[in-house]
Specification:
5-stranded antiparallel sheet; 160 residues; 8% helix; mainly beta; single chain; cytoplasm; Thrombin, subunit H
Length: 160
């Protein structure tokens, strides 16, 4: 079966930067699952997977615009340290979670004081050209429930 809209795709990936440094991988873990054509994956990855079949491996390079966007310098915000979640003690460069009006958001601590912290609201991978090594593990038709919910269920997908 080929990857197409309304299929559940499981895949393994290795994410690298332009210098071929590995940033993330799930090669030794369960494959990632998503419902193709339902905006649950980076558009560049979905486009590259369209038409592929189980067992195919390939690499793609995504520009910042195709991935997590360009870095925006005006995305630094000052927040109370008590609103940072994920650690008890903070220092520059650490990842934190903050609650915003749009829900939880991952941020990077830029500077921290006793009561206030400057956080970078850009996605950690914003501004980077990314290389994805992809392997299609399986492709199957989505269930009615998955189509109704708009996401894949089971291993590598959503669990209710």
């Amino acid at each position: 079966m080929q990857v197409a809209n309304d299929t559940v795709v499981q895949f393994k990936y290795t994410l690298k930067d332009e210098d071929s440094q590995v940033l993330d991988t799930n090669v030794n873990n369960a494959p990632l699952a998503y419902l193709h054509g339902h905006n649950g994956m980076l558009e560049g990855i979905e486009n590259a997977l369209t038409g592929k079949e189980e067992g195919e491996s390939f690499s793609i390079t995504l520009s910042p615009e195709e991935a997590y966007g360009e870095r925006k310098e005006d995305m630094i915000q000052r927040v109370p340290v008590k609103h940072l979640q994920g650690a008890k003690k903070w220092s520059a460069g650490m990842m934190a979670t903050v609650h915003t009006e749009q829900g939880e958001r991952q941020v990077t601590v830029a500077k921290v004081g006793k009561f206030m912290a400057d956080v970078d609201m850009n996605h950690p991978l914003a501004g980077l050209t990314l290389i994805f090594d992809l392997e299609v593990v399986s492709v199957r038709a989505a269930t009615e429930e998955e189509l109704e919910h708009g996401h894949a269920h089971g291993e590598g997908g959503h669990h209710h």
